[in-house]
Amino acid sequence: MKPDSITIAYLAIGAKRNESFAGLAKVYGEVETIDRVISFAEALDGRFEVVNDRNQFDGCFAYDVAEPLGDWIVDLALQEDDFPSQHRVLSKAEVFIREHMPEAPAISDKEAMDAIQQLLSGQDWSGADDLNRIAEIARATGRTLADIDDEAA
User: Fold this and answer.
1) Is the dihedral of CA 107, 111, 115, 116 positive or negative?
2) Which end of the chain is more exposed for a tag (fewer CB within 10 A), N or C?
3) Domain for residue 29, yes or no?
4) In a domain, 98, yes or no
């Protein structure tokens, strides 16, 4: 899955609008900082697709999710002297998404299994990409999957 260019753009916009962006850019460089922030775009698009499988999102994804998430990533990177894990970013993204989907329940186990079956049936598997997508489907059922970084902490 290729990340949406609007997602990339609004993650970057959110990061650049953060008042502390210049301080983080002094540590990592401006290009590296933006690259790190937008590196979450593909996973973010995948999470949105899973969470919004019933098309209940009533906001603008770019303005209401991607942009504030870019801002949040900069704040967290400054607070913790490192960029957050993908798991933390996607968990925060889900908070922003669900703010515009107050009645949206997590998907059922049957819906999750159907989605995984559809993803894997009759196709060459893409390894890590498919595993990330399966993890996102599992998270949409309300399950928590820890990253390696989370377990070490």
Assistant:
1) positive
2) C
3) yes
4) yes
Q: Give a yes or no: residue 120 inside a domain.
A: no
First to last CA, the chain: 30
Distance between CA atoms of residues 12 and 28, nearest Å: 15
Structural domain for 49, as ranges? 5-105
Tell me the residue type at 28.
Answer: Y
Number of Cβ within 10 Å of residue 112's Cβ equals: 22
Other beta carbons within 10 Å of 16? 17
Number of domains in the chain: 1
pLDDT digits over 46-81, tens only?
888 877 766 778 889 999 999 999 999 999 999 999
Residue 118 exposed, middle or buried by CB count within 10 Å (0-12, 13-18, 19+): exposed
Q: How far apart are CA 115 and CA 127, in angstroms?
A: 17
pLDDT of residue 13: 97
Residue 53 lies in a domain: yes
CA 36, 41, 44: angle at the middle one, nearest 5? 125
Q: Which of 1-10, 83-92, 102-111, 113-122 has the lowest mean pLDDT?
A: 102-111
